[in-house]
Structure formats: structure tokens, C-alpha cells
UniProtKB/TrEMBL annotation:
Organism: Halteria grandinella
Protein's name according to its UniProt entry: Uncharacterized protein
GO biological process: SRP-dependent cotranslational protein targeting to membrane
GO molecular function, one term: ribosome binding
GO cellular component: signal recognition particle, endoplasmic reticulum targeting
Cited InterPro entries: SRP72, TPR-like_helical_dom_sf
Length: 132
């Protein structure tokens, strides 16, 4: 079992690598780093890794894995869900997903999402110890 300090250090290193992979468009590397992050901490505690993983899965055309990742969260990922369905040739379902026929009150357009740096990486970049 890792101590909180060890976990923060490992996550900080992994998020730095993840950020570099994202910036250089190395999607397979993004998937590798998110796997490691999610082994250290749960997906519920690491929404940045989960979102990075979803984006990389879509960009690498791993649509079935992307659908599995958002299973149960389709409303929060309505646009990604619709895009995946469209790419699979399921256009009627994609339209229904984007229209929110399942009540997409929680749906947020990707352009409306703020790209937020994970606290552990933000603290490291600022040169201080991360806090939760």
C-alpha cells in the first residue's frame, strides 16, 4: 500500500508524462499513462485521466472501449457518445444522444468544458507540495 506522499509523487510524475504525450499527439502513450494513473488511484478520483483516456480512445478509433469507459455516464459525455455512435454508422442513435432524448440535462458541450490541470500536477508546476 502506498503512502499518500508516495501516491502524490507517482501521480505527479505520471501526469507530467501524460501531459507531454497529449501535447505531442502520442495517443497510445496517453493510453499507457492513463492506465498507470488509474492503477495508482481510482477513476472516480482521477477525472482528468479518465477524460484523457476517452479522448485518446476516440482518436485511436477504439470506439468499443470508449463506449465502455463512458457506460453509465452517457449524459455527461453526450457529445463524445454521439460522435462514437456516428463513427460506428449508428446515426439515428447518435442524433438521439445529441438531442438528449434520454434527458441530457447533465450534458456539457466539449467546448464548454474547461481544461483543468490536475491538482497534483498544478502544485508540482508551482513548485510546492500538492494538497487534496
Amino acid at each position: 500500500m502506498l503512502s499518500e506522499e508516495e501516491k502524490k509523487n507517482i501521480l505527479g510524475d505520471l501526469y507530467e508524462k501524460l501531459q507531454k504525450s497529449q501535447q505531442s499527439g502520442q495517443h497510445q502513450s496517453v493510453l499507457d499513462h492513463t492506465d498507470k494513473i488509474l492503477q495508482v488511484d481510482s477513476a472516480e478520483n482521477q477525472p482528468w485521466a479518465r477524460q484523457a483516456r476517452l479522448t485518446a480512445l476516440i482518436k485511436t478509433k477504439n470506439f468499443e472501449q470508449a463506449l465502455e469507459l463512458i457506460k453509465g455516464r452517457e449524459k455527461q459525455h453526450a457529445f463524445e457518445h454521439a460522435y462514437i455512435l456516428h463513427r460506428q454508422g449508428k446515426n439515428k442513435e447518435a442524433i438521439a444522444a445529441i438531442k438528449g432524448e434520454d434527458s441530457a440535462d447533465e450534458a456539457v458541450a466539449p467546448s464548454a468544458r474547461i481544461q483543468v490541470t490536475p491538482p497534483v500536477l498544478r502544485a508540482r508546476q508551482a513548485g510546492r507540495s500538492p494538497s487534496r
